[in-house]
Amino acid sequence: MSHGSFRFGRFLLEPHNRQLSLDGTPLELNARYLDALALLVSEPGTLVSKDRFLGEVWRGVPVTDEALTQCIRTLRQRLGDDAARPRFIETVPKHGYRFIASVERVGAEDAAAPSALAANGATSGAWPRNLALGGAGMAGGGVAGVLGGLFYGLAGASQDGMGGVSIILVLVCLTVAVGLVGGAGVGLGIAAGGLAPGRPALGNIVGGALGGLIVGGVVRLIGLDAFNLLFGRSPGDITGAPEGALLGAAVGLGAWLGSRAPGRVSLRRGMAAAALAGGAVGVIIPLTGGRLMAGSLAEVAGRFPDSRLRLDQIGALSGETGFGPVSQIVTSGLEGALFSACVVGAMILARRGQTALDQSAAGR
To answer: Is 112 a residue whose pLDDT tops 70?
Structure first.
């Protein structure tokens, strides 16, 4: 890691000290904006694209075009620069930015890789942010659980006058618990995957898949053990790690697709992209022999014939007698779309909040 500094005009940038100063007076600049300036200054005269900013400053975490624009705007304010007649940062329309001032390297380790300078401290505050995104994913999963539990609960209770409310409450609690845990695991996985340099799509997909894989495996293990302990037999082939990995990857893909649109990331566009990806994977899962929530509930109901839980009403909507393969495909697709849209929507809102905080801190 280089401990060199950069002098340009009356400014001194010390990436290792996390400080920009003017004539020896420190200037306030938040961590990501300082990293962006370090990336520009370390390669004077070189075009730095938006993708490089995403990969080396935001570490692949999806952000809006407005976030980068605000970053450059703030840097120009600190440097006393003018976008129309730039002395330091030049805009290359539709491509990126270039640092055009003369830069003097100061320090013994001048030959260090420029990317290391940009990455120095790039993860400062990254884990708190990741935890916040994981919490947002958890909240989104919980919302999906409430909606799914109400739907399945009403469908199951409609055939049983006695205990109908209890069935609804039990199913809502069950789906909310699974949604919360699944949303947290997938959200944390996507946020952690965003720390990988470059290729944000791959980081989001792999991170989401790993988070879903771990959560799905743990939920299945606990569920099977609980049934064996309480009832002395297994409920059968319920959802688990493979389904969790596929759905987590779909959420990661949806999160990335939603962030690729120009300008501010639209909540509606992001959720729509996630719903399409999640719905497609949801349809694939039962076709390959897997099960999501409705399929697992139907499997449990079939293994425990004394149970009052029945999903025949859902089958009737699909033109089937009972909960058949068509019903399983349809409900699985809807579950995947709902879970993905809610998790990604919550994460988009959380990222907007983080960007607003960054901009507020930079303006102070």
So the answer is: no
